[in-house]
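The records we work with from here on pair a chain with its fold. Taken together, the tokens spell out the fold as the letters spell out the chain. To see the layout at work, look at the sequence and tokens printed below.
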Amino acid sequence: MQKILGLALLLAIVFPATAQSSLQWGVELFPNLSFRRLLPRNDINRDQIDAVDDMEQGKFSYSAGLIATWRKDKLGFKTGLTFVESGYQTKRTEVDLRDEVPPGAEDERTAYQSLFVEVPAEMLFFQNFDRKNQMYFSMGLTAAFNVDNRERVTYYFGDTQDVVTELIANNPQVDFGLMLFNQNNGNDYYDENGGRVVRHLTRLEQSERDSLANLVDNLSAETWTPLCETFYEAYRYIARPDN
């Protein structure tokens, strides 16, 4: 490993210092689907690994960064600075009632996110087909620095949503609106605290009533529950004290 790092460092010094080498720089963006790799260990067997693997699935991830490439004839060297978002998520499963879960939650899904800053060091081998077309192979390594690891649990409500949608459907003489909690993620003026109106309280035609029920059906629990602020927002929305 030390020899490889030494070679990468040597190339990083030699190629930029070469008078006849050309420099190109740009931006790279790679969307991908990331998974967790499970390896056999002494404390778990293959069946246990397969059982865990069956509960997990990939999640959309990406990497983006600035790169610089030096090239001389058919050889090149590439380095840069890249931000990488990676991770995986569990499949939607039934909640364990022994855990502390929100009232009415039936299913849950956990997403695990890892953030990295990477510095690649790659040797490039170019092959020109003609003046406009070429291909290259790369071989190298990457130094990755873990910045943060995050975990987010999404809860799905079944019966609670069914009760609301049935209430909307069975009371055509009643007009409904809908408010949602915000993230409640801080105390600054620009943070998303309290709640918000996502469907105004107004007279509903049947198509609008169906649309509201569909909106309720597709809600997932991804926020906190700032009840006090949200009730105050609801009061201001209905009472209009400023008017």
